[in-house]
């Protein structure tokens, strides 16, 4: 069985970009971060490891925070980076990528985090 047969999902990858914007009123620009409108790596084959999912709910004011972690497997050579936004094509759920690991030049694994309010890690 080839690794390509293992990839049964698809996802879009968005790279985090620096954005310098001015709030107006002749104030100097400030640096911020945002994701682009269109994916940098669209429709890549992948596998979401749902068996390894952990979900934690933390009670905070005014709302509770849901925090979950899931393992994503990608083909070798995929351009995925820390803090990338990953969107599952099947479910539409958004995740934030952790540090990608190249597994012996065979494939890439990334731990994803999903929180109730998406933000860079």
Polypeptide structure, described:
It is a single chain. This protein is mainly beta and 121 residues long. Helices cover 3% and strands 54% of the residues. It is built from 1 helix and 9 strands. A 6-stranded antiparallel β-barrel has the order 1-4-5-9-7-6. Strand 8 and strand 9 form a beta hairpin. The protein is globular.
Strand percentage lies at: over 45%
Note the run of SSEs as H and E: HEEEEEEEEE
Q: Which structural class matches the secondary elements?
A: mainly beta
Q: Report the helical percentage.
A: under 10%
For the biggest sheet, the summary is: 6 strands, antiparallel, barrel
Q: What is the residue-averaged pLDDT?
A: 84
Instruction: Report the principal-axis shape.
Output: globular
> Regions with pLDDT < 50 over 5+ consecutive residues?
none
Q: How many β-strands, per DSSP?
A: 9
The radius of gyration computed from the alpha-carbon positions, rounded to a whole number of angstroms, is: 17 Å
Number of separate helices:
1
End-to-end separation: 35 Å
């Amino acid at each position: 069985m080839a690794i390509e047969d293992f990839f049964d999902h698809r996802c879009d990858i968005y790279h985090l970009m620096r954005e310098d914007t001015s709030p107006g009123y002749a104030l100097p620009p400030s640096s911020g971060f945002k994701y682009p409108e269109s994916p940098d790596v669209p429709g890549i084959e992948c596998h979401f490891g749902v068996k390894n999912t952990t979900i934690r709910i933390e009670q905070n004011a005014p709302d509770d925070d849901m925090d979950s972690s899931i393992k994503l497997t990608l083909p070798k050579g995929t351009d995925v980076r820390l803090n990338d936004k990953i969107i599952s094509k099947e479910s539409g759920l958004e995740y934030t990528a952790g540090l990608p690991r190249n597994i012996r030049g065979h494939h890439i694994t990334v731990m994803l985090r999903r929180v109730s309010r998406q933000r860079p890690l």
